[in-house]
Design brief:
By secondary structure, this protein is mostly helical. The protein has one domain. The chain has four helices and no strands. The radius of gyration is 39 Å and the shape is rod-shaped.
C-alpha cells in the first residue's frame, strides 16, 4: 500500500513535470511564431514604408530650404545677395521637384497616396509661381526705390525747359 502511494506520488510528480514541460514547449513555440510574425512585419515596413517616409522627409526639407531662401531674398536689399538667394532658390526648387517625382514613383505601390501627391504637385506649382512673382516684385520695388522720385525728375525737366517756357510765353501768347 505504501508502495502504491509512493508510486502514485512519483507518477503525479512526473505528470506535473510533463504538463509543465508541455506548457513550456508550447510557450516557446508561440513566442517563436510571434517573433517571426513581428520580424516579417518589420521587414515589410523596412522595404515598403521606410523609403516613402525617407523621401517624404527629404521633400519636406527641400521645401523648407526653398522657403527659407525665399524669405532671405525678401529680407535682402543688396542686389548681389538677392541674386545669390534667387539662384539658390532655383536650385532648391529643382531639388524639391526631383524629390517629389521620386516620392511619386516610390508611392506607385500605394494608390491611396495618389490624390495627396497630386494635390501636393498643384501646391508646388502655386507656391513656386507666387514666390517667383513676389521675388520679381521685390526686385522691381528696390529698383524703383533707387531711382529718383517723380517730383525730382519733373523739377529737373522744369528747370531744363524753363527757357523754352519763357520763350513760348513771350512770343506765342
Amino acid at each position: 500500500m505504501k508502495k502504491n502511494r509512493q508510486v502514485s506520488v512519483i507518477h503525479r510528480m512526473y505528470a506535473g513535470f510533463s504538463v509543465m514541460l508541455i506548457l513550456f514547449i508550447a510557450t516557446v513555440a508561440l513566442t517563436l511564431d510571434g517573433t517571426n510574425r513581428i520580424h516579417i512585419q518589420l521587414e515589410d515596413v523596412n522595404k515598403n514604408t521606410l523609403p516613402l517616409v525617407n523621401l517624404a522627409n527629404q521633400t519636406s526639407v527641400n521645401l523648407l530650404l526653398a522657403d527659407k531662401l525665399f524669405k532671405d531674398f525678401l529680407n535682402s536689399h543688396e542686389p548681389q545677395k538677392m541674386q545669390d538667394y534667387f539662384d539658390r532658390f532655383s536650385i532648391a526648387h529643382k531639388n524639391f521637384s526631383v524629390t517629389l517625382q521620386k516620392l511619386a514613383q516610390a508611392s506607385d505601390k500605394h494608390p491611396e497616396l495618389t490624390t495627396q501627391l497630386q494635390a501636393l504637385s498643384k501646391l508646388e506649382i502655386r507656391y513656386f509661381t507666387a514666390a517667383n512673382e513676389a521675388m520679381e516684385n521685390h526686385k522691381d520695388q528696390l529698383i524703383a526705390q533707387q531711382e529718383p522720385p517723380l517730383p525730382a525728375i519733373t523739377d529737373r525737366l522744369t528747370r531744363r525747359n524753363a527757357p523754352i517756357h519763357q520763350w513760348t510765353r513771350k512770343y506765342c501768347y
